[in-house]
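Bit of a strange request maybe. I'm writing a small parser for structure token strings and I need a real example to test against, not something I typed by hand. Could someone generate the tokens for this chain?
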Amino acid sequence: NQKNTITMEFDELKQVWDSQNNEFLYAINTQALHNRMLQKKKQAHHITNTSELLLIIVNMGAGYFVFQMNLSSHNGNIFMYLLAAWMLGISWYLLFSRIRRLKKDKHFDRSMHGDLNYAISVATYQVRLSLLGRWSLVPIGLFTLLGLWESGKSVWLVVVILIFFVLTTYASRWEHGIYKTRKRELEILKEK
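Reply from user aminoacidic:
Good idea to test on real output. This should exercise your parser:
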């Protein structure tokens, strides 16, 4: 009998709530959901822009620097030329990818559904950008190590640089996991 009283009180409370607020007690607050989604969209957009520009500028600057240093040295090192070409090629590829991404961004409608699709699109691009950065470390590390070895640098320097690239690869794996998690959070939000 007490169970019926509690159920009755709950049902009465629910009816009072619904009549006073014109909202269902268990309704999804779409405005709060949209605000959360906009926050995640803004975060993904900011991280992607920053990562993209940083990768473009660093690769272009380092590639140009390595090329000029190798050009001015008396004994040109083929591996340093390959390193410079790789870094410059990556920076140009990223620049064109950025232009394509920015053109594509204009095609999303500015509704809650469109904003969420845009956020997922940016997060997907960030995951791909992170993966490109991870895989780009392999040729950069290889060309650097071979260039140091060919120029007769100390074995200890080569070992230290190798350890640096191994740690960088590990850190990039951790970073890539963060981006994949953020993308998955947005996809879960879409499923709600």
